[in-house]
Each structure stands twice: as C-alpha cells, then as structure tokens.
Write the structure tokens for this entry.
Amino acid sequence: MDKAIVLVSSLGLIGFIYWFFLGKREKTSEISTDIKITVSGGYSPESITIPVGKPVKITLIRTDPTDCLEEFVIPDLKIKKTLPLNTPVTIAVTVTSPGRYGFHCGMNMYHGQIIAR
Amino acid sequence: MHCASCAATISKVLRRTPGVSSANVNYATEKAQIKFDSTQITLEKISQIISSLGYSTTPEDKDRQINILFMKFIISAVFASLALWGSLPAISSTAPALLQSLYFQLVLATLVQFWVAWDFYRSTWNSLKHRAANMDTLIVLGTTVAYIYSAAVTFGLVRGEPYFDTGMTIIALIILGKWLEARAKGKTSEAIKKLIQLQPKTARVIRNGQEVDLPISEVQVGDQIRLRPGEKVPVDGKVVSGETSIDESMVTGESIPVYKHTGDLVIGGTINTSGAIILSATKVGSATMLAQIIKLVEQAQASRAPIQKLADVISGYFVPAVLMIAVATFAGWYISTGYLPAMLNAIAVLIIACPCALGLATPTALVVGTGLAAQKGILIKDAENLEIAYKVSHVVFDKTGTLTEGKPVVTDIVPSNQVTNNDLLRLAASLDANSEHPLASAIVAAGAKTALKSLPVTGFKNLAGRGVEGTISKIKYTLGTPSLFPSVPSDVARLEKQGKTVVVLAIGKKILGVIAIADTLRPTATDAISQLTRQKIGTSLITGDNPTTAAAIAKIAGITRFFAQVRPQDKAAAIKQLQSEGQIVAMVGDGINDAPALSAANIGIAMASGTDVAIEAAGITLVNKDLHSIPLALRLSRSTLRTIKTNLFWAFIYNVILIPAAAMGLLSPILAAGAMAFSSVSVVGNSLLLKRTRLS
C-alpha cells in the first residue's frame, strides 16, 4: 500500500516540478525605453519589450548576494556587466533588428529575454 | 563601477568638492584614495556624494567574500570531522562521549546547516519566488532531507542511523569547491584588468604657456602634452617635438621599444623610456586605442560561441530535470528496496548534478583566451570568429603594406656604359619629380640622397600608369615599364626574378639603364610563413604585380601560391576561388583598401594602421605589425577552442555518467559531494591552463 502511495505521489511531484519550473507563462510587457530590472533569485521582470532602432536604457540592481547573479550577459549584443550588490548599473542598448535576445547570469542558470519589436 | 570612466568621473567630482585636496579612484582595485580637510567635509558627506553619482562606497569586497568562504569551509570541515569521529563505527569508540552524543551532533549539524549554508537557503528562496531553481536549490534539498531525517532519528521519531556527518561533509566539500572556484575565476580575467590598469590618470598639459597636471578626462584633442622619460603616454597623440623610444609592449605586444620623432604617432598607456617629448593629443577618452582595445576585448568576452548552443539549451531544463530524476530515484528505490537507500540515492542525485560546470565551460576559456591574445596585440572580435580561426586552412596575404613594409625603395641601379650611376639616377629622379606614383617617390627619394640637384624638365607627360616622358637639356627621355620598349637588357628579367619592379630609362629606343625598386619584406615574414606551414596551413600571396615579380616574392617569403595582377576590386574573387576549392580562408590585409577581401574571406585579419583598431571587416585585428601574430593568433584560437571543447565534453560526460550512476545507487552522497565540488573547479582550472600555451 505504502509503495503505491509513494509511486502516485512521486508521479504527482514530477508533474508539479514540471508545471512549477517549466510551465511558466510568458508575461508580455509594454514597449519601453527606460527599463529597471531587479536581480534577485532571477530577473524581475524576466521579459522586457523594447523598440527596434531606438536607444534604450536598462538599469539593473542586484539585491541578491548569490555569486551566480554577479555577472549579467546578453551574448547576442556582446554585453557583459558585473553587477555589484545594491548598486544600479545602467546599460545603453540600441537593437537594430526585431527578435528575441536572451540574457542570463554568468553561469547561465538564470534566464530572461529582451523582445525587440 | 563598471568601467574606467566611472573611476574618472568619481575622481573628477570629488576633486571639485570643497575640502577635498586630492582624489584618486582606481577602477581595477575598486579603491579610492582621498585627501580631505576634516574641518570642511566629513567622510560621510564624501560617501553621500559618491552615492549621488550612482555608486556605492561600501561595495562587496571580493577578497573578504573569498576569506569568509574559506572560514566557513574550515568550520564545516572541523564540525564534520568531529561528527565522523563520533559516528563512524571503526573509530567512534576512541571518541569522547560528547562527540558520540546524537544531541551534540545535532547542535553541530544545525550550525552548519543553518549558519554555514544559510546563503544556499536564501538563494533558493529567492529563486523559488521566480519559479526558477539553481545549483543551491539542489544542495539545499539534498542536505535538508538528510538533516531532517537525522533529527527525526535523534528524537526517536524514526528508527535508523543518523546522517549528520554526511550532511556536514557535503556542505564542507561544496563550500571548498566554491572557494577554489572563486579564487580561480578571479584569475581568468587578469588580462583585461591589466589593460584597464594601463590607462593613465593624469596628463601634464601645456595651457597658456603653463604646465598643468589635469585628470585624463579633461584632456582635449589638440592639447599639447609634455612627457618626460619614464612617464606613461596619457592619450593617443602625435610627437610635435623631441625624440624618444617608447615601450609599446603592454598594448601592442611588440617587445622592442619603438623609436619616435616628430610626426610619429604614440599610443596612450605605453611608456616613454628615454627622451623628453611634447605631443599633441589626437584621440582622447573612449576614442583612444587602449579604450577601443578594452571595449573590443570586453565585447568578445561577452559573445556567444556557436559551439555552446547545446549547453545553452540544456541549462534551461537542467535543474528541474535533476529534481525529477531525484524523485524518480526515490520512488524506484523505495519500491524495490526500502526508504533508506531511496533517500540516500535521491540525495546523491541532487548533490552530484553540476549545472555550473556546463555554464562555466565556455565563458572561462573565452575570457582567458581572448585576454591572452589581447596581451600579445591580437584582438579577436568574438567567439564566432574564434571558432572560424580554429578551422582556417589557408591564409592569403596582401602584398603591399602587409607582407612588405609598404615603402618601396630603389635597390639596384644598372647604367649602360654611356652614363654613370649618378647620372642615371639624377635623370630618372628629375623626370619622376612630377609624378605621384609610389614607385616614382622611391626614385625621387633615392635621388635626393645623392645630393645632386634635380634638373629642369619640360614637356612632362604621364604615360597612364606605365611611365613618364620629359625633356631635359633639349633631349627627350622616356622612363617607364619594360613593356614600353621593344627590347630591354637582360638585367630586367634578372631583377624581376628577384621580385623587384624594374623601370627603364631611354632616349627613344636607346636604353640608358635600368633601375630596380623593391618593397622590402617585413623581417618577420618568412619566419611567420614557415610557422604557418608547420601548422599545416596553406599560404597565398595576392598582388597587383606582374607574375614574374609576384612569383619571386612568393618564393622569397616561402609562399606556395600567388595571385598576380589582381586589381584591388578583384581580390574578393580570388578569395572565393580558394573557398570553392574547399579552403577555409583567412585574408590578411589592411582594414581600408582590403575591406572587401577581408569581408569575403571566412575570417579577415586586419593589420591596424595608426591608432584605429575598430575595423568592421576584420574578425581579428592585429595591433602590431609583427607577422608572427598571425600564426600565433591561429594557434591561440585553436588552443582556446580545444579548451572549450574539453570543458564542454567533461561537463557533459560528468553529468551524463554520474547522475545515472547516483540514481543507480553507485555513489554515496559524500562521494557525490566531492565530485561535484571539483567539477566546476576543474573546468575553471582547465581554462587557466590556457595561460601556459606556448606562444613562441
């Protein structure tokens, strides 16, 4: 009996893990040229929308001491910044073609994206 | 601070603050030295001013963090050893009664779990709020399960053996791994830090006849700057008076000091070794060569390597997948064996998984490789170009100014028996005085050296790139390419076979003599090409010269193949021909005239001219004129990519083999923690090994 309970709960737990971590709905945001991202256990917001061809200011503030989050990378835009704790860091970008530009932490464990429209 | 200009801004603002007599902010060390009058201003006020600029005066101290990690490792290692002594059956009988007490072990474990490992909990909680997970999540889950189970055993809620020693050992090993990794990671970016430190802080500017020391941010283009021996060149500039030797090794990688006199360009960040000079600033701030180099290297280090694609995809699913495998492991073992192996094996799965190694595999090698290259004056644009450079099978050299010095000089004067050497040269120089052709300048320069006066020329006529005509003392002379004349002396063929360009001076059909002009090969050319040959990379020469001259130069340089009489606009076609033969082609040229050919090649290698290094068409820019940089750049690219591949291979294999091994019960949690702790360290360490690449 206990084996059946363990089996069923394990299957349920696996389903929950899938839903919790991988079943996130993408939140859409309005186009903006002045964006603030809080870096703590990930990026808030995780998805930002920017206009194509216009200069955009992205300000990041890291409030989480986890070392993984210390570096911020947007590989397709060749941007890498070190984020000192509790200190705003501003990045100026101008994206020339529409699309999705992923960003992540130095060890590629926390992810987010820039949608250029 | 995120760039050197931040440091400059803070220094500037502080210096203008009443009460502050001097302020120097060092970007690399992140430290500020401020002298101030405490009766006029307080430290708090200074701190507020810095904060108002958007910077923090109490930044996290990297060294302090590393020291805290070490201290935490020692504490957890000591506590874990005590618990092991008190609980391992073989030795526990020798331990004091206190250590054998489960309650005492519970106290030790609680301290390790909730004080030493507290950062893991905080990080996990922060991540879960975003429905994300990281390595810390796995460690927290694994060790918390062990801790709760052991506590339950201690209080008699469950029957079995406690695992306090296991939990503490896991945490001690993981923290040891983090400590080693933090130390090694700092070393990967040493090269760029050194470049940033090269940036001078002040310049001695002559304004209104007075010499004033100004912060570098206030120097403007056109400012006259005095430079004494031993001082650092503050900005890019042109020498306006004096002569000296400048050590440019730190920027260009060129080891021998370069002689500079009036009119020569000097590079900011280099060291004036001997004479006193005055220079006029030509580039300041972000336009200087050093600032451009730093920007290019930083961009390259942030770029994405195509080889990393799979690792990128996996990293998005890694932690959730491991969590699911751990749950499945628990269920499988529970059903087949019982709850104890189920728990231990699930913990081993959680602990062994190492997403960090995958994430660190490419960036650490890229940072070390591109940094090392930059120190040698080689700027690799991005990871993508690094991957192409790794595959290059054929290098095409543009001749003039790339393989050669780009300054043609007269090498042979062969008069007929009717004239002397000097007569021949004097006549030719006089005729060419009106021509703008580069070969003509070589003859005029040679004539000037003889100190013979130029003769007046009348009826000058340019023969459309083939030569010139003119009358001197009522005699009409023709000076031009051998093809202008029906028959020429045998010297012409002899000299052309030596790779020289030959011009003939004649009165009508009567030949007075021939003059040979050659653009000398760079001293490093033959050795660089033989290095490429040894690296099994083919070489070609591309030139506008006739086939005889081209063949001769190719032979002297040791190049196997040549493309002669190629007009600048047709160079790209020659590159395409090589590509159609299956070659991966690197084109070496200057960034201006050769831009189309550089773009047509799989990778363009540009030799920077002046102080401009941001060359759009080039995948690799060489800051110095040393042709050895080309085989070196290709060797470094190969080593870097090999390191990336090894790192990725081990990071993949490690997870692919050890996660199933842990799930199958082949690894104890402590063994898993040991392997996990050293997986990231080994990746970073392997990247640091790149520094030992043989560069010569």
Helices of chain A lie at 2-22.
